[in-house]
Amino acid sequence: MNIQVALDRLTREKCFQILEKTAPYVDWIEVGTGVIKEYGMSIIREIRQAYPEKTIVADMKTCDAGKHEAIQAFDAGADITTVMAFSADKTITDTLEVADSRGKKVMIDLLGVSEKKRVQDLKNLGVTLVSLHIGKDMQEAGEGTGTLFDLTHGISGIETAVAGGITLDTLPGIVEKRPDTVIIGSAVTKAGDPEEAARAMKGLINK
Description:
Layout: E1 2-7, H1 12-22, E2 28-31, H2 33-39, H3 41-50, E3 55-62, H4 66-75, E4 80-84, H5 89-102, E5 105-109, H6 116-125, E6 129-133, H7 136-140, E7 159-163, H8 171-176, E8 181-184, H9 186-189, H10 194-205
Parallel strand pairs: 1-2, 1-8, 2-3, 3-4, 4-5, 5-6, 6-7, 7-8
């Protein structure tokens, strides 16, 4: 099970400070949407150069112009780019084609998806990786990750990542569901000691 650290709503300097402390304990590095909007493709290139051994996720949240945005992300050094599940099927298949041609991956963000049928449709399009996602605003309204796994239950051949305010306290319940990747954001990036937070989470996952 991978740990993906989500670097979002942070300055460039803070991103690199956190990575310096947490890199030994994380497998995937997510360059968050807010960070990409602030610093563009250049910060993806910088993180790629600094951490060549890590899997880099560019959280582009693409919903249109799939081919163009996928090329942008992969040319900058990302291994995975994200596309919203509500995008047109053509947008999704375009990004998949770009990824396949470069040996990269597309993660489909299921934010806002409530019907299992959409996940099955995505699989039929060739999707192999999805993110079960409770958004920041929804977290603040008190929603949790509890029923998210119902969306992929019984659908084989799809890797799952899960995100949504996951903390050390809620992580055991997530681990029980056996996702392929756990996405950790503020529980690490806003921790008083990010290194210790990441180490503790990695230790819990590896139990």
